[in-house]
Amino acid sequence: MKYHKLEDTLVCLIGIRTIESPLVSDFISTIQSLSLPEVTVQLVSARSVYGPDHLLGILKITLECQKRSLALSHKPQTDLLLRLSFTNQIALAFDRSGLKKFLPAVVILYSTDKKKLARTRAKIMGYLSTVVDDAVLAASDESRDYIFQLLGSGKNTCLIDENKNFVTQYLIERSALIIK
Description:
By secondary structure, the protein is an alpha+beta fold. It has a single domain, classed as CGI121/TPRKB (PF0523-like), CATH 3.30.2380. Strands 1-2-4-3 form a four-stranded antiparallel beta sheet, with helices on both faces.
């Protein structure tokens, strides 16, 4: 598990094979309760993520918008979810990119304090040890098809290309266009 650096913010991504909790809301509350102050924790559906670079690119936009007071929401977690879902409607964002029972997920941890981030990561990894699977973070055809479906494009769109970097960059730039 490596740390990614976005200017002064460190980010850690954890893939989860499946959410087995009877109530997704309880699972989210438990994960968030393991976080130390100054560490932001967010969980999203893995099918909305086209690889780590896609997620990191959108997080970078969210953090920059927060600095410039241009964010879609007061909370960076909501801004990220909206951009990841290509919408400015919160209910639609939860439906598109929120967690679902028995499906893969991604835990996003970020902070400017590396020690607190590392301790939070260790606590969460201990809790999730049996379901951690970073393979869900990989850019897959399934997630690409799902995301393009959100954009209103079918599987046969000319933008769907075998070049993962092109697709990733397109999705990041497309998420930057979401406005209030």
